[in-house]
Amino acid sequence: MGERMDLKALFEPKSVAVIGASSNPMKIGHKVLNNILLGKYHGKVYPVNLKGGRILGLDVFKRVTDIDDTIDLGIIIVPASSVFDVVQDCAKVGTKFLIIISSGFSEVGNREEEERIVGFAKEHGMRVLGPNVFGIYSANASLNAAFGPSKILPGKIAIITQSGALGGGMIGKSAVNTIGLSAVVSVGNKADLQEADLIRYFKDDKRTKVILMYIEGVKEGRRLIKVLKEVPEDKHVVVIKSGRSKRGALAAASHTGSLAGSDAVFSGICEQCGILRAENIEEAFTWAETFSEMPIVEGDNTVIITNGGGLGVMCADACEKHGVPLMDDSATLNRIFKDVMPDFGSTRNPIDLTGEADAKVYRVTLEKALDNESISAVLALYCETALFDAKSMRDALVDSYRRYKNNKPLLFSLFGGEGVEKVMQDLRKKGIQVFDNVYDASSSLGAVYKRRNYLLEQRKTRRYERIRINLEKIKEVIEKASREDRTMLLPNEAKKVMEIAGISVPKWKVAKSMDEAVRFAEEIGYPVVLKIVSEDIVHKTDAGGVALDLETKMEVIDAYQAIVKSCRTRFPKARIRGVEVCEMIPKGVETIVGGTHDPSFGPVTMFGLGGIYVEVLKDVSFRAAPLTRLDAWKMVSSINTYPILLGVRGEKRKDIEGIVDVLL
Fold first, then answer.
1. Residue ranges of the chain that CATH labels 3.30.470.20
2. What DSSP state is assigned to residue 369?
3. Secondary structure (3-state) at 234
4. Could you tell me if 545 and 577 are in contact, meaning their C-beta atoms sit under 8 angstroms apart?
5. Ranges in the chain annotated CATH 3.40.50.261
6. What is the pLDDT of residues 336-391, one digit of tens each?
7. How far is 376 from 83, CA to CA, in rounded Å?
8. Domain 591-663, CATH among 1.10.10.10, 3.30.470.20, 3.40.50.2300, 3.40.50.2000
């Protein structure tokens, strides 16, 4: 049906059949039907159950084929063994989309039946969500076709979740925190419809401003990357990815049949696509809520306004941690706030109004900050004091938020007792985000800045550069290794590939005898390096297969003999093809550039600290190929040891441009 299929009939169906509807309130089939009716769905609803009768005031059809109407959406809640028969019936009445809530498929090893169902559905013009899902909610149709909570507030956040239970929990949490949702979709086993398909719908949906995803594993990662890069600037994607650890990956496989994939690769893809990866659900929710209500920040001058010095200091620490730039123009700050500042207060950022500040002072101070064009964002903090008046403070914060919410980011963080908690509850009921922890507030504003920075970088960057490489020559090298039944290239072959690609390498030759090693060393020029050449010896240093900084003929002879003897002793069955004689490069910082084929995202490029410590420190970054020049620069600058490349303690800056060229 094509990648750009229309999902309107899934999210805005005119008719829904609940196949497996039940009169038993303890059954999923009853809960789904009841939620549809309670949600005041706009279209027609048809309960289906072999027993017939009436459920919740509606006539029940024994089979889908008994319904004299076109069915846009069929929701299947029957035992796994009966699902295929139901799918066949749905095909007969021209059903467009199927949501298979039933479990018992690939998540328990029953992949063959799952593939049979999806294959048949596609052949008959139907698309499948699931199986093993909890259903769907769509504010566009007032449709709550899930067995989660009944109360869902319409709003701007779309949730895509691979876990049904988490999806239900997120619906409940959103209701408690007065967070509105545009949609909730459970994807389960992702046998057909996947995140990429749903994001393609949400990126064009006028109601949706934020897409919040919980992912355990990714299928067809290249397609996901493509659609993520198509998300417009005024929409934002927040993701929680589980399966970071070995235990987590195993749990994901047993939960939804997912392959968790490399966590480091996934993080790199998020950076590359401007996706905000949260550590946990709480963080993801706060970020999503912030993005759903706040405009993107325009400048780099955030101001902290507080009545407590300690709270302000903590917030300043949190801002540095989360990448929130604070305004440090003391002269401008003094000019803006001197009229509201007591003699013992501080106009340095944080702006400390002191414990004497009441609601009126707060209101005026916020107005000054929010009206001033040089201030980009405001973090308004309040500690309860003896002067605290709940109603006045609430009214001041509500008024400030409503007047300025579309102009620049304004985040509140309040700390205190029962009165403060009451104010926070009142603010949340009015749809105003408020934090009880300055670190959470700073984290959310940091996410806004991170997204802003990504958008600015993308506007400035060039597209993919055209790089010409003689691929036929490279294929010849690879085919030779393949004919010899090898899965890896020998060092000399790898150097040949790099030379063909235009990457400079040290002078080198492979010696088959000690005499050749001496002659090659003198041709190349001392000092030289000797390395064993064998597909059976990967870690050459551990095998005694490397000798460095050889400066004379005798040193080459001794090293050649020692290398061959050591490798034959430790790896008696190894195929030794010779000893590489290589130019000794002056001491510097070793880095590593590599590529691999990720099971989820396909070809990916890796960069990091090199040498013998690469597998220990694992200070590496990943991006999906192909790369833009900006992607390559971000890869280099994102490793922890990047300051070493910039030069430390008087050292010269390393050739970072050269690294970028190699990555490209």
1. 591-663
2. H
3. coil
4. no
5. 8-291, 300-460
6. 999 998 878 888 899 999 988 889 999 999 999 999 999 999 999 999 988 888 89
7. 55
8. 3.30.470.20
Q: Are strands 181-186 and 135-138 parallel, antiparallel or unpaired?
A: antiparallel
Neighbours of 246 (CB within 10 A): 9
- Copy the structure tokens of residue 645: 């490349």
Q: Can you say how many angstroms the Cα of residue 463 is from the centroid of all Cα atoms in its chain?
A: 22
Written out in words, the top-level CATH class of the domain with range 8-291 is: alpha beta
Could you give the 3-state DSSP secondary structure of residue 578?
Answer: strand
Secondary structure (3-state) at 183:
strand
Tell me which residue of 415, 452, 408 sits closest to 434, measured CA to CA: 415
| Mean pLDDT confidence for 300-324 | 96
- Number of neighbouring beta carbons within 10 Å of residue 234: 9
Percent of the chain whose pLDDT exceeds 70: 95
Q: Are the C-beta atoms of 146 and 135 separated by less than 8 Å? A: yes
Phi/psi of residue 590, each to 5°? -85, 130
Q: What's the pLDDT at 252?
A: 39
Q: How far apart are CA 209 and CA 203, in angstroms?
A: 8
Q: What strands, in cross-sheet order, belong to the sheet with 236-241?
A: 143-146, 135-138, 181-186, 154-161, 210-215, 236-241, 276-277
Q: Which residues neighbour 613 within 8 Å (Cβ) at sequence distance 6 or greater?
A: none
State how far the Cα of 581 lies from the Cα of 563, in Å rounded to an integer. 12
- Cα 240 from Cα 623, distance rounded (Å): 19
Q: Say if CB 78 and CB 88 are below 8 A apart.
A: no
Q: Which of 523, 368, 382, 390 is nearest to 441 (CA)?
A: 382
Torsion angles phi and psi, residue 33, rounded to 5: -60, -45
Alpha-carbon distance of 388 to 422, in angstroms, equals: 12
* 3-state SS record for 312-376: HHHHHHHHHHCCCCECCCHHHHHHHHHHHCCCCCECCCCEECCCCCCHHHHHHHHHHHHHCCCCC
The matching CATH number, chosen from 3.30.300.180, 3.40.120.10, 3.40.50.261, 3.40.109.10, for 300-460 is 3.40.50.261
For position 260, what pLDDT does the model report?
39
Whether 609 shows a pLDDT value over 90: the answer reads no
Selection from 269, 320, 315, 296 nearest residue 449 by Cα = 296
Q: Which two tokens stand for residue 28?
A: 């999923």
Locus of tokens 């000690």: 514
Q: Is 507 exposed, middle or buried (0-12, 13-18, 19+ CB in 10 A)?
A: middle
Cis ω on the peptide bond leading into residue 491 (within 30° of 0)?
A: no
* Cα–Cα distance list, 330 to 304, 315, 333, 337, 355 (Å): 13, 18, 5, 10, 22
The answer for residues whose C-beta is within 8 angstroms of residue 354's C-beta and 6 or more apart is: 307, 342, 344, 345
Token readout for 662 is: 């190699």
H or E stretch including 413? strand 410-415
* Alpha-carbon dihedral angle through residues 476, 482, 483, 486, given to the nearest 10 degrees: 130
Amino acid (one-letter) located at 556: V
Q: Give the residue range(s) of CATH 3.30.1490.20 domains in the chain.
A: 471-583
- Across the chain, mean pLDDT equals 91
- Domain covering 471-583 assigned CATH 3.90.226.10 in the classification: no
Which of 68-77, 83-92, 596-605 is predicted least confidently?
A: 596-605
Token pair 């944080």 is at which residue?
A: 350
Half-sphere exposure of 455 (CA within 13 A, CB side): 18
Number of residues in the chain: 664
Query: Does residue 643 have a cis peptide bond before it, meaning omega lies within 30 degrees of 0?
Result: no
For residues 649 and 221, give the distance between their C-alpha atoms in angstroms, rounded to a whole number: 42
